[in-house]
Design brief:
Elements (H helix, E strand, L loop, with lengths): L1 E2 L2 H11 L10 H8 L2 E2 L5 H7 L7 H9 L3 E5 L5 E5 H20 L2 H4 L5 H14 L4 E2 H11 L5 H10 L2 E3 L14 E4 L8 H19 L4 H8 L3 H9 L6 E4 L5 E4 L15 E3 L21 H4 L9 E4 L2 E9 L2 E6 L5 H19 L20 E6 L1
Parallel strand pairs: 1-8
Antiparallel strand pairs: 2-4, 3-4, 5-7, 6-7, 8-9, 10-11, 11-12, 12-13, 13-14
Helix pairs in contact: 5-9, 5-10, 10-12, 11-12
Length: about 375
């Protein structure tokens, strides 16, 4: 097997994630190529596409959510993601063992006295009830009326592993607000472990298309599945994948024809949003985040701050405050890099102006303790 350097892995990720240059793509095609966009904060998929799509306008993603081209739901890593509708059912099926087990084996559910069978039995009728958008309060009220000894934890479990999506809200800044509204993403539910395993194979291939080359451990981290399941899924693709040796001797897999640019391919600066997917999609995150910076970017509660991407690697963080973009570089940057970041910041302030100029404001407490490095106001 040929060896791949850290630089080659970095540039492969950037190329597949449209971060070497912005491309003129429709929202649906862009999301398909990117595989999954972290959507824990409603604004993050918008910033992800702004960083990647030439001429991107927020209204285009609004429309894609509303016409169902893309879906916001709990899927990979048991957290909210935006995925293409053609991927949603497969991803959700592949994730069923993790989604279901994370809730039905949790003491917060088991302590209610309800069983996994009780939850499974309630789900089909609840999905029928959610053919029209429903709030959490409405879903809990229905369960209280129709399920004996129902607890609020029943809906807590069902909304995670049931095939529900978040319904767009016409009055929300980013198409979704703090109050979630749910709608059935599929008409029925049937637990099918064999189908889940087969669909994980499809998810594995899709992951490699968007994030490869990668290891079995990387796939397990991306999907939050046991490493044994990840290895089995990749083994099912034996003969269909290219294999490499990574910098640390770990076996890496990739789809045939996967883009792998030279390590010296130029990578322009970017202002990545909070919980950016490329920073969470690998077990070995060193291809993008230097180890010395990781704790500054990923905080103790799991918050992943908005970051400066310089030469393909995380070099600092940024925040929008009072209509300005304030950036902190952890280490000295050349003047020409600051100038390029300032140009990005000016474009970002224009993009945010009509939506949420102080995006991610409720996370500004992470700046209460001064961050190391140099801080500059880049725009505003």
């Amino acid at each position: 097997m040929s060896e791949l350097t850290p630089g080659q892995l970095n540039r492969a990720t950037l190329a597949r994630q449209l971060l070497l240059r912005r491309e003129a793509l429709g929202v649906g095609e862009a999301v398909r190529r990117l595989v999954a966009l972290q959507a824990q904060h409603p604004a993050s998929p918008y910033l992800a596409l702004w960083n990647r799509v030439d001429g991107f306008e927020a209204a285009a993603l609004d429309e894609a959510y509303r016409d169902g081209t893309v879906v916001r739901s709990i899927s990979v890593r048991i957290t909210l993601h935006t995925v293409h509708r053609d991927d949603h059912a497969t991803f959700h099926s592949a994730m069923q063992p993790s989604l279901r087990g994370s809730r039905l084996h949790d003491e917060r559910f088991t302590s209610t006295g309800l069983t996994a069978a009780d939850a499974d039995a309630a789900l089909p009728a609840l999905l029928a009830h959610a053919a029209e958008p429903r709030t959490s309060a409405e879903m809990e009220a229905w369960l209280t009326e129709h399920v004996r000894d129902a607890s609020p934890r029943l809906w807590w479990a069902l909304r995670t592993y049931g095939p529900f999506a978040h319904a767009p809200q016409p009055d929300a800044v980013w198409c979704f607000g703090q109050r979630n509204v749910f709608v059935a993403a599929a008409p029925g539910y049937r637990r099918d472990p064999e189908r889940s395993d087969a669909d994980l194979v499809v998810l594995a291939r899709r992951y490699l298309e968007g994030f490869g080359p990668a290891s079995a451990a990387d796939l397990a981290q991306f999907a939050l599945v046991p490493r044994a399941r990840a290895r089995t899924a990749l083994a099912a693709l034996a003969g269909e994948l290219d294999r490499f040796t990574g910098p640390d001797g770990v076996e890496l897999f990739d789809v045939p024809g996967g883009i792998r640019p030279d390590a010296d391919t130029p990578a322009p600066p970017r202002l990545l949003g909070m919980w950016e997917e490329i920073l969470l999609a690998y077990s070995d995150r060193s291809r993008l985040i230097p180890a010395r910076h990781r704790k500054l970017v990923t905080r103790v509660n799991g918050d992943v701050l908005p970051t400066l991407l310089v030469d393909g690697h995380v070099a600092g963080v940024w925040r929008a405050t009072e209509g300005r973009i304030e950036a902190t570089a952890f280490e000295p940057l050349p003047d020409e890099v600051w100038q390029a970041l300032a140009a990005e910041a000016r474009a970002l302030t224009r993009f945010l102006a009509d939506r949420e100029p102080d995006v991610y404001r409720r996370h500004h407490h992470w700046w209460e303790k001064p961050l190391p490095g140099e801080t500059r106001v880049l725009a505003g």
